[in-house]
Amino acid sequence: MAKQFVKGNEAIVKGAILAGCRAYYGYPITPASEIAHAAALYMPLVGGTFLQAESEIAAINMVYGAAGTGIRAMTASSSPGFSLKQEGMSYLAGAELPCVVVDIMRGGPGLGNIAPEQSDYNQVVKGGGHGNYKNIVVAPNSAQEMCDLTMLAFDLADKYRNPAVVLADGFIGQMMEPVDFPDPVTEFAEKKWAVRGVDGDRMNLISSIELDPDDLERHNKKLQRKYEIILNNETRFEEYRLDDADFIVMGYGIVSRMVHTAVDQLRIEGVKVGMLRPITLMPFPSKRIAELATLDHVKAFSVIELSNGQMVDDVRLAVNGAKPVEFYGRMGGNVPSIQELVHEIKRMMRVL
Amino acid sequence: MSVKILGKSKGFYDTYERRPGSNKEQTHYCPGCGHGILHKLIAEALTEYGVAENCIFVSPVGCSVFAYYYFNAGNIQAAHGRAPAVATGVKRALPESIVISYQGDGDLAAIGGNEILHAANRGESITVFFVNNAIYGMTGGQMAPTTLIGQKTTTTPYGRTLQNEGYPIRMAEIIASLESPVYVERVMLADTRSKNAARKAVRRGIKNQIEKKGFSFIEVLSTCPTGWKMSAPQAEDWIKSTLVKNFPLGVLKDIALQVEPLDLSKHLAAPGRVSKLIGLDEEKVKFDTSAMKLNPQIDQEIKIAGFGGQGVLSLGVWLSEIGMREDLQVSWIPSYGPEMRGGTANCHVKLSRDPIGSPLVTHPTVLIAMNRPSLEKFEDDVIEGGAILWDASLIDIEPKRNDIVKIPIPATDIANELGNTRISNVVILGVLAGFSDFLDPLVVQRVLPIIFKKRHLIEINLKAFQRGLELGRELSQ
């Protein structure tokens, strides 16, 4: 265990290397470039590969090739780059290849700007590419979690043979905080399906093509069962001051840090609010939200996002009409101040 | 409609179990199609060189999407056009394997134009087989980038024209124009003689990879009787009479004998060394915080702003590093992007005894302004009773407010006096330590040598800190 003051983006790379990742393929883009810088610096030192690809598309396909050989591989980008990678995400999910993809979200649509947003929720959590697939998605809210959840993402990706996305925003990526780095992972499960250029693997095939409709439907059903198992086993969330809360405020990533502070301020004023923060966005803590919605003391939910309201749809599905669900969002790279959040939460509570 | 690959090589599976339907003996290719022949040449070469079991075959999208039905190798099926990128990921992970990227003309020359160009330019140690039959076979006979002028396809029903589609693309010539590739040849599959030449080229391409020579590219003019609406013999004749005139045969580049074998060996670090190699050396990182605890009276929210290059961001990082070593909760967040590169920069630092919620500082307890625009911009945000420190050498105005502590610092003048303009930020750090009760000068002095990257600058920095410290103490009295 070693404590170091590092940028979130650098914590990702150090966490990845500690998790055994030995291949990084990427393309520069603000505000995710420090990830490539750190990977370029450290990967060669541990005998891994760093390659700046010719495009986001090439980068994700290099990851596809590397993951097919059974090694832990990753790429990272920011919103417009992730849009380009969607083809590869679909193929990775179809071929059931484990890998980690980082998305440091910025303002959109189009070229947008480089300030933080959370407007990739739909394109990352809902799949985004073609086909009936889902990514595993983790949402860190600190530099420490950039390390920890990246390491977790590699484990979950391998365990379920599924691409895993670390979904963060420009602030979490750029922010520096102390991080306790764990010892490197040394034991890995064998990947019997991998193609390693040895005699025993010659019947192995990495592919997402199934010509026969029945075969493809069977494959799709298998994927859906896998997502169900992930939902049952891997849902992670954080609860804060919910025991007697009238009002549950939800936010992920950087927003959860602000909500945390706003909740404290409101509590000082005697307002009974609490926070529910999803740590995994796929699987989403729908079950817990539904439970909370049935509690008498819970009057309503509010969702805060740096977007037009994307996660709020999943909250509404989980609440299923049992309680009102309010929304407050900022876009364009604007981040609400604590005072603004306190004000908005009070406003939303008055509406009820 | 299927053709049998005659005299099956050991490079193929005994039976094609992955092929749907009852026919597990023959390929799915049309009669007279060149793919079956090229498959056979590749399988033979892999077997003869004894590398079939080390081969990883990357199938493209196109008629040969099902190449994995046949090749007794590790098989990977790639997205349309991306085979060279996939092959790159494979080869970098497994440098001892023989990696083949097998692609058609739509896959390689159209949608995958970028991937092949850059794999070639990097000199990836792979072998690329490019099947050029001047048409999209699988999707129903559409125009390919290599379709000839006047050639009718389902998307050029009146024939390809210069005005609308331009000239057919000559990939082998483009690849041969790059520095990195070691071997580029165009062959055809039209008669016994040309097939023998093709066999030779296929072997060369694979041998080059075995010998770690680099990137080999073999373009194969191949028949598509179905797409061309011809019989198999007519198709072979059309290659000889027409296609080859647009795509001349021959070796376009061959430096394989001249180049030294590439060192592709991988040296993975032992797990026990990994932490140290990535800068997580415990001895270096751990810092003895005992006997130097101090209790900040209030949590500090600091905003530091100035021009890029003044060390605004570094000053924030130092404050955070010092705070971390005092066992405080700390966070630092910069303004980032073009703004930072172009001119003004600012960062937000929080030092707190409690976990930090938002890392953003909207209302600073301390504002450090290193240029006039920063002072003007952020003065009003400072909390009542907060402090503003500014570089009085550079800023010719004073804060207007009277409900804050004002600390003018001739930071740049002092730095210049010491011989380095760039250490004005250290002077300010010193003033903070001398003036306020949230930085213990002893702690700072012990931490600075640890966090400064350039060892030879430590002495001058400590001097600057000392000057600032004295000034801070003076000002506080």
Structure description:
The complex is a heterodimer of chains A (352) and B (477). Chain A has 352 residues and is of the alpha/beta class. Chain A contains 12 helices and 15 strands. Chain A has helices spanning 8-18, 33-42, 56-68, 79-94, 121-125, 143-160, 170-174, 213-234, 254-268, 286-294, 311-319, 338-351, and strands at residues 2-7, 23-26, 49-52, 73-77, 99-105, 136-138, 163-169, 176-181, 205-206, 237-240, 247-250, 273-278, 280-282, 300-305, 325-329. In chain A, strands 3-2-4-5-7-6-13 form a 7-stranded mixed sheet, with helices on both faces. Chain B contains 18 helices and 15 strands. Chain B has a 7-stranded mixed sheet, sandwiched between helices. The longest helix of chain B has 19 residues, at 192-210. The radius of gyration of chain B is 35 Å and the shape is elongated. Chains A and B meet through strand 1, helix 1, helix 3, helix 4 and helix 7 of A and strand 1, strand 2, helix 2, helix 4 and helix 10 of B.
What does the secondary structure layout of this molecule look like, with pairings?
The complex is a heterodimer of chains A (352) and B (477).
Chain A: E1 2-7, H1 8-18, E2 23-26, H2 33-42, E3 49-52, H3 56-68, E4 73-77, H4 79-94, E5 99-105, H5 121-125, E6 136-138, H6 143-160, E7 163-169, H7 170-174, E8 176-181, E9 205-206, H8 213-234, E10 237-240, E11 247-250, H9 254-268, E12 273-278, E13 280-282, H10 286-294, E14 300-305, H11 311-319, E15 325-329, H12 338-351
Parallel strand pairs in A: 2-3, 2-4, 4-5, 5-7, 6-7, 11-12, 11-14, 14-15
Antiparallel strand pairs in A: 1-8, 6-13, 10-12
Chain B: H1 34-48, E1 55-59, E2 74-77, H2 83-93, E3 98-104, H3 105-111, H4 113-122, E4 127-132, E5 135-136, E6 142-143, H5 162-165, H6 171-176, E7 183-188, H7 192-210, E8 216-221, H8 225-228, H9 232-246, E9 250-254, H10 271-277, H11 282-285, E10 300-307, H12 312-325, E11 329-334, H13 338-342, E12 344-352, E13 366-369, H14 372-378, E14 387-391, E15 405-409, H15 411-418, H16 424-435, H17 441-451, H18 458-476
Parallel strand pairs in B: 1-2, 1-3, 3-4, 4-8, 7-8, 10-13, 13-14, 14-15
Antiparallel strand pairs in B: 5-6, 7-9, 10-12, 11-12
Helix pairs in contact in B: 1-7, 3-4, 12-17, 15-16, 15-18, 16-18, 17-18
